[in-house]
Design a protein that fits this description.
- The chain is built from 8 helices and 7 strands, in the order βαβαβαβαβαβααβα.
- It has helices at 16-30, 51-61, 76-85, 104-113, 132-149, 167-170, 182-192, 216-232, and strands at residues 4-9, 36-41, 65-68, 91-96, 120-128, 163-166, 197-204.
- A 7-stranded mixed beta sheet has the order 3-2-1-4-6-5-7, with helices on both faces.
């Protein structure tokens, strides 16, 4: 079994995806991490999106890259579950491929979890440069999460990535969300299973290439799922 699987969510990344993957490879090798695979999730809902073709090109270029390119049947959560389920590493790290967080975070969370003291290691966005609107939404969401679930461990930023889990921890999860709730679903189940959790601070930059996917409908979906998942369980 390889040490590390890096799952990159590359929805509509197009040409930036190649640059991002090469940054990840460079960071891993500089950190002397050589036993790894990269799983590119480049599912699409628009035939004009060139991301699947670019993802397949990257797979042909590197023998440690797997490319997943399917017509979308869900949102971010569907992509995320597909990528994590395709991973074969001892540790599974998932991150967004939009470049809003330092690629070096992958090395940081891997080095921490690789010591064996934690089941899950994740970042929290201590410094944010993506605007007042997004920052406010995130704060309100995390406050609601704390009020509704009352976790024994304070979760500072539910949706922040990268997140990395041990294979043993991941195999205990039962993820079913196909929408934007998957990050929260992971944290809810991790808390219920008493995972040993470590959180490290990071920087979150503004995305200069596209507008945020987090609109009013997404916000409503977040809040609805928080209550629905709590009542269901």
């Amino acid at each position: 079994m390889i040490d590390l699987s890096v799952v990159i969510l590359g929805y509509k990344s197009e040409f930036f995806l190649l640059q991002f993957v090469e940054q990840v490879i460079s960071e891993l090798k500089l950190a002397d991490i050589h036993s790894f695979e990269i799983i590119l999730v480049a599912n699409y809902d628009n035939d004009k999106d060139t991301t699947p073709q670019i993802s397949q090109f990257i797979q042909q270029k590197y023998d440690f890259v797997k490319s997943i390119t399917k017509k979308k049947e869900g949102k971010m959560g569907w992509d995320m579950r597909m990528g994590m389920e395709a991973a074969s590493g001892q540790y599974i790290c998932v991150l967004d491929g939009d470049g809003q967080m330092p690629v070096s975070d992958v090395v940081t969370v891997f080095n921490i979890i690789n010591k064996g003291q934690y089941d899950l290691v994740k970042t929290y966005r201590h410094y944010r440069y993506d605007g007042f609107y997004r920052t406010l939404i995130s704060k309100v969401y995390n406050i609601l999460f704390t009020i509704i679930y009352r976790p024994k461990v304070a979760i500072k930023d539910v949706n922040s990535k990268p997140k990395i889990l041990s294979r043993t921890a991941f195999d205990q999860l039962n993820l079913i969300s196909n929408d934007w709730f998957t990050d929260a679903e992971i944290m809810i189940q991790a808390l219920k299973l008493n995972f040993r959790i470590c959180q490290v601070s990071t920087v979150f930059y503004k995305n200069e290439r596209r507008k945020s996917y987090v609109g009013f409908n997404t916000i409503f979906e977040f809040i609805y799922n928080l209550f629905y998942y709590r009542l269901k369980n």
